[in-house]
Amino acid sequence: MNTWRSASLVATAAALLALTTACGQEKGDQAPAGAVGAAAPAAEGGYGSSDGYGSGAGAKDEQASQSKAQEAGRLAVWDSKKLGEVVTDSAGFTLYRFDQDTAEPPKSACDGDCATAWPPVPASGATAAPGVDESLLGEVTRSDGTKQLTIDGWPMYRYAKDTKPGEAKGQGVGGTWFASAPDGKKASAEGSGAGAGAAGLPGMSTREDPELGEIVVDKNGMTVYRFMKDSAWPMKTACTGACLEKWPVVEPVAKDDTKGILKKGFVTFNRPDGLKQQTIDCWPLYTFSGDKQPGDTNGQGVGGTWYAVSPEGKPVGVSK
């Protein structure tokens, strides 16, 4: 009898220890061995897009292919009424920066299909625009060995859906792509784009949607989603590669920078691909590139696998 009680106590202690380990991550730092960032491959169509980059079917056309190798030439500055000062190439095409890249040190996170939708700007042949500090121009070596132009460390791209000078259709796509200002910072999207009307919001909060009820939103007021193919215990993601272009991760948020959000399991998921992702109740969180402004819920129910998130981290609108 004593032996049975001892075994029971040991089992209980082990269970409690497991619960205190953040969402099944080893010391909260990484997914368990063998996860490789995916509980299971996402089924075709689960991303809600044919290519996942907000580019549509035209992303792989001849224009995009030609843009890949086109030198920027002498850069120029376009004074946009909506975006402020925007950097363009010598032909007047807008240059963009990607939030998932880094400037210190310079590094590009856009490869493969991403680089088809967002052709990297070659470093060769690029010269500073009049009035722009030439010392801000640099280059980064991409994974394929090519040299990409940087401005103050940020890799520069064009957008395949910009088909003529003066267009900036890539502004705010996925909440991660923005036109570049002359100093490499994001061009200011006054009155448009992902940040419109969202001033003063905490890093994560909730809003009352007329159809879905109370749902979670990010600092820009954009709807936050869950992927039903992910898991929380242990924490794993099935959204990798091209999926992340359509469904960008929600970056880590400080607990004291939230309002109305469940704090249980409110931890950072250090993904195997190197990205850091916020979770609620240990569920990884995303936004949707198809949402263009605060209040949009275009990702709701996409592929039968993507749903807005309740303050408790539960998927909203899922059939029980």
UniProtKB/TrEMBL annotation:
One biological process GO term for this chain?
A: alkane catabolic process
Q: Where is the signal peptide?
A: 1-24
Instruction: Give yes or no: UniProt keyword Kinase.
Output: no
Where in the sequence does UniProt note compositional bias of the Low complexity kind? 31-44
Its source organism is Streptomyces himalayensis subsp. aureolus
- The answer to whether the entry has keyword Signal is yes
Ranges of compositional bias, category Gly residues: 45-57
- Return the annotated region ranges for Disordered: 27-71, 168-207, 293-320
The molecule here is called Lipoprotein
Keyword entries, A-Z:
Signal
